[in-house]
Amino acid sequence: MKDLSLKDTITRSELVDMEGVPLTKPMGITWDQVQKFKARPDDVYIATYAKAGTTWTQEIVDMIQQNGDTEKCRRETTYKRHPFLEWFVAEPPSERYSGVELANAMPSPRTIKIHLPVQLVPPSIWEQNCKIIYVARNAKDNMVSYYHFHRMNKAMPEPGTWEEFVEKFMSGQVLWGSWYDHVKGWWKAKDKHRILYLFYEDMKENPKREIQKIAKFLEKDLSQEVLNKIVHNTSFEVMKENPMTNYTKDFQGIMDHSISPFMRKGVVADWKNHFTVAQNEKFDEDYKRKMSDTSLVFRMEL
Ligand code: A3P
User: Fold this and answer.
1) In the prediction, which pLDDT does 9 show?
2) Could you tell me if 87 and 37 are in contact, meaning their C-beta atoms sit under 8 angstroms apart?
3) What is the pLDDT of residue 90?
4) Is the overall model pTM greater than 0.70, yes or no?
5) Within the chain, which residues score under 50 in pLDDT?
6) What's the CA gap between 150 and 154, in Å, rounded?
7) In Å, how far from its chain's centre is CA 200?
8) Which residues belong to any copy of the Sulfotransferase domain (predicted)?
9) How many angstroms separate the Cα of 49 from the Cα of each of 5, 94, 116, 176, 224?
10) Which of 46, 49, 54, 56 most suits a substitution to test ligand 1, by most atoms within 8 Å of the C-beta?
């Protein structure tokens, strides 16, 4: 019998239903604390469906806040710089992690990451009228990225085959639930709250323009020199080589970058390398139905 390596012995998490949204079992344990979380008026939230470009946006926001100082941005890994509010891990093999505890202990001004669908956002965040940056990515690329992330990250549920994963994604039976409800819910919420709604595809098309939008939203004036520095340092190529942003320092033994690196491709339309023609037709038809009640439009290619 072959020796079992750490990654073979890890049991992947099961999902539990939390108000209609599948979350991990440990997250269910601390759900009350998440809902009672006390926001502060000067908090900034980065909200996304998983794999929509969270880490990229976190780096952009941090670089803006640090006025382009790369040394300051390298003070810690992305995972440790910004608490991941609803994330909770109680037991090994992952390190213990409580997003709520980390956020509570953090001095203001805080920048906090969430993947929650809009209806599950802790009420205090709305009450304090906090700034929220939401990033959305087209469904097909988002799903491809999520599939590879499940393969490489043993903290995620078993993805099954690509065909099986497509079915799960379309029916919303994945961690953080339905992509369709997520992007539509936040799209609606932006008319009532302080939400900057961005698209991954726009960020790829013209990062400078989108970084400027974020800076304006955060009420930060950036010189051209600093802006250019941020564009460069938040490019896929630079972030892939940066140990503070590429997730090689966190989740060691949990994330296996040899299966699929966290910084995988970072492009628009990689879905074309994954979907069969039949799959694409089925997906499009279902997509049309699910997205018929929104004005939200995505670009599937540039
Ligand atoms: P791919 O798997 O398609 O490559 P998140 O941070 O929300 O988990 O999203 C991860 C996705 O964003 C991955 O997509 C990753 O490669 C991509 N990404 C990370 N940094 C990026 C950057 N600077 N530019 C473009 N894409 C980036």
Assistant:
1) 60
2) no
3) 87
4) yes
5) 1-7
6) 7
7) 11
8) 41-294
9) 31, 22, 7, 7, 31
10) 56
- Residue 172 to residue 286: CA distance in whole angstroms: 12
Residues contacting ligand 1 via CB (< 6 Å)? 48, 50-56, 141, 145, 148, 234-236, 239, 263-266, 270
* CA nearest ligand 1 atom 2, residue: 145
Closest CA to ligand 1's atom 23: 236
Question: 36 C-alpha to center of ligand 1: Å?
Answer: 31
The domain 27-290 is placed in CATH, from the list 3.30.70.120, 3.90.1700.10, 3.40.50.300, 3.10.129.10, at: 3.40.50.300
- DSSP assignment of 5-42 equals PHHHHPPPPPEEEETTEEEEHHHHHTHHHHHT----TT
pLDDT at 56: 98
Residue where the block lists tokens 């279902």:
286
What are the sequence ranges of the domains in the chain? Answer: 27-290
* Closest-lying ligand 1 atom to the alpha carbon of residue 235: 23
